[in-house]
Amino acid sequence: MTKMGWAQGSLIEGGALDPSFPHDLYLIVSQTCDILHSDPEVEPDVELLGLTRLTAAEVVTTLKNGRNPRKIHFETNDGTTSVWLQTSMQDILLLDRKLLLNPNLKSNLSVATPVLTDLIKWRANRYLRPAFPDDFENVLRHNRKSEKLKRKITREKDLIDQIQVAIDPFGELPSGEAYVIDFLLLVEPEVFLDQGAREKLKTLAEEIETLYQNTPHLEELTCRFLPLDRVTLYQIKDYLRWSPHDHLSFGDTDL
User: Fold this and answer.
1) Ramachandran category for residue 223: left, alpha or beta (phi over 0 → left; psi -120 to 50 → alpha)
2) Which domains does the chain have, with CATH numbers?
């Protein structure tokens, strides 16, 4: 298998497998060391993501770059032509590792390293991303405010390294209570030192606070920005990493 070049990110032609594998292509997401393990009893299978080809017209912008935690559209190529593909969290399968000895399985398509990295992170985030209370997410969605929030954050996304959020109480709201929320926009030190960037971040923070004034079930929402080199783990021990793409796009219930 080593000589055949199998590794994490290799693509398999769906038509070369039996009909129980219905997708156009399959991406090997198992680690390379597991694919090449010497003992088939220890590592009997490889994990695959089933991929479906898309036309350019079928590509959805909000499904690119890992924005959606359940489905993703991404681009690959055969050396000359771009090919768009789709997969979802449900499209995971196992393949008997011994079948990789068949040289006819390998596709002539390839996945660029940055795209593969994004796909692996997207898959891992299924299990790693924080689960926020439904009531908290519904507060942010109230009266479609979440759409405005996403647009504002997206506008300055190149300035922001990550977003952390603290919620009190952290849980579903008891009757008669309201949330206190603090958003913390963390930026690279050089961004913080840039006067123009600071002005944009200040405007963004003020716009977010204004957006959520007079929101039901919300006592207070504050938004600040700080450079990464001035934030300690102790300061953010009660914060969780938050993304508008992961936590605002996939519910339709309002409080």
Assistant:
1) beta
2) 11-128 (2.30.30), 134-247 (3.30.70)
Q: What pLDDT tens digit does each residue of the chain (255 aa) get?
A: 777 889 999 999 998 998 889 999 999 999 999 999 989 899 999 999 999 999 999 999 889 988 888 899 999 987 788 899 999 999 999 999 999 999 889 998 889 999 999 999 999 888 887 889 999 999 999 999 999 999 999 999 999 999 999 999 999 999 999 999 999 999 999 999 999 999 999 999 999 999 999 999 999 999 999 999 999 999 999 999 998 876 554 444 433
Angle of helix 145-155 relative to helix 134-141, nearest 10 degrees, comes to: 80
Give start and end residues of each alpha helix (H) in the chain. 32-35, 113-128, 134-141, 145-155, 189-193, 195-211, 244-247
> How far apart are alpha carbons 246 and 126 in whole angstroms?
10
**Inter-residue contact 111 to 119 (CB < 8 Å):** yes
d(CA 157, CA 61): 16
3-state secondary structure of 57: helix
Gyration radius of the chain over CA positions = 22
The region that residue 79 occupies, defined by phi over 0 for left and psi between -120 and 50 for alpha, beta otherwise, is: left
Rounded Cα distance, 97 and 76, in Å? 24
